[in-house]
Amino acid sequence: MRKLIVFLILVGALLVVLDRVAVTGVQSEIAKQVAARYDLEREPTVAIEGIPFLTQAVAGRYDEIKVDMGALTSKGVSLSDVDATLYGVTAPLSDLVQNAATTEIMAERVVGTVVIPRKVIEQRAPRGIKVDGDGDSLRVSGAITVRGVKVPVEANMKVQTVDGGVKLVPEKVIVAGGIPVPTNAARSLTYTIPVDNLPLNLKVTAVKSVPDGLQVTGEAKDVPLRG
């Protein structure tokens, strides 16, 4: 009986080791393929969720995979905290073992977030306009030309998604001296930050202000992971 218990313990320990070795190998392969397909400067950090891993591997389907891509630049815009969660990833283990380079890896659904840093938001703002905020909202201040005269202006900014980016639109515009706000004053404070060509085919679906800048959420379906 004692020998049987020891044997079972050894088998259990061996399975745990095999489980961790296998998950490390698959995570590494997914990281390589994502980096190659989406031309990333470095391989992302990949974490396959769920224990035990081997049951998912045998089925060739992984319920949830976390991908941390760090910072990257897309169309001249610097983005930080680029993270994604892949759902329903299919990748047959036998194919990965025999020929990982040609194995088709597909995610049924991807949800990701990127952050547009405060520095980038201000760099993209109209000349002479400063951007600040408290994490819940953005405000701008500076000077605009009204009837040929430069006057101080302040405004709260509403952030909204547009095709290929996010748009900042002023509301509650206040011009020094109580001068009525002309239509072109609000228009001159409006600007768009392009957020396009994101990894994993992510398309912008939502945006919100956070302490570090603007957090943009994107989603995609049926996303291939290999180049």
Task: Name a few traits of the molecule.
28% helix; alpha+beta; 5-stranded antiparallel sheet; 6-stranded antiparallel sheet; 227 residues; disordered N terminus; 2 domains; 11 strands
Concise structural overview:
With 227 residues, the chain is of the alpha+beta class. The protein has 5 helices and 11 strands, in the order H-E-H-E-E-H-E-H-E-E-E-E-H-E-E-E.
Q: How would you describe the overall organization of this protein?
A:
- This protein has 227 residues and is α+β, with helices and mostly antiparallel strands.
- It folds into two domains: 121 residues, no CATH class; 81 residues, no CATH class.
- 28% of the residues lie in helices and 47% in strands.
- It is built from five helices and eleven strands.
- It has a six-stranded antiparallel β-sheet.
- A hairpin with a 4-residue loop joins strand 5 and strand 6.
- The chain is elongated.
- The N and C termini lie far apart (53 Å).
Instruction: Report how far the terminal alpha carbons are from each other.
Output: 53 Å
Bin the helical content.
25-40%
State mean pLDDT (0 to 100 scale). 78
Number of strands: 11
Query: How would you sum up the global shape?
Result: elongated
Order of helices and strands: HEHEEHEHEEEEHEEE
Largest sheet: 6 strands, antiparallel
Low-confidence stretches: 3-21
Largest sheet, order of strands side by side? 1-2-3-4-11-10
Q: Would you tell me the structural class of the helices and strands?
A: alpha+beta
Task: Provide the domain count.
Answer: 2
Number of helices: 5
Strand content: over 45%
Radius of gyration: 25 Å
